[in-house]
Amino acid sequence: MLTIGVTDCSKYSNYSNWIISGSDDIEIIKLSPAKANVEDLKKCHGLLLTGGEDVNPQFYNKPEYLKYCYADDVNETRDEFELQLLELAIMDNLPILGICRGMQIANVFFGGTLIPDIPSWDKPSHSKLLDGNDQYHQVQVDDSSWLSKVLTQKQGLINSNHHQSVDKVGELLKISACSPDGVVEAIEWKEPDKKSFLCMVQWHPERMNDQESPFVRNIKNTFLTASKEKSV
């Protein structure tokens, strides 16, 4: 049985259902600050960091950015919990997939910083549409990146629903995809050889309209394959 740890969030079931869809041999462990169950990660073969609240800027030494965050959407307890999970996962060479906030908290873990509000940094909004649905836009993938080998294509259509993004990239990491307006859409190991699986994306593959897109299917399948190798 393959066991995947999935971090708790308001839309937790979207992520857990996406991971187990089409498979009968995957068990999900909910990793939640409410349970303080960091140690449960030791039972897992892979870690999925989900979307959700803004990361408190105090964790990347920019407390003055707090005014750009949504006041009711900052959760320091979750931040601390997920930073602990990342420390343990990296120590144990666990495959890690980060989605939206998941990418952002991972970048902070590696010493990077965030843009706390994209429009305030003079870039077009990447937030949801007025009707509440995700907006969609193109993404450009770095030809030389590990991600390009996973996706087998240099560009594509992805969904978008966020107001924060990666600014300074964390130590040991590099940008692997950007939107046409320059917002970071994916990060990965700077030198992936002999390192565990690490894929961080800003879009939401778990709810994209086209679930057969390489920007969904290939990412999920590569993550699960890496997790299965860890389980052996």
Automatic annotation (TrEMBL):
GO terms for biological process: polyamine catabolic process. GO terms for cellular component: cytosol. One of its GO terms (molecular function) is gamma-glutamyl-gamma-aminobutyrate hydrolase activity. SUPFAM superfamilies: Class I glutamine amidotransferase-like (SSF52317). Transmembrane segments: none annotated. It comes from the Bacteria. This is Peptidase C26.
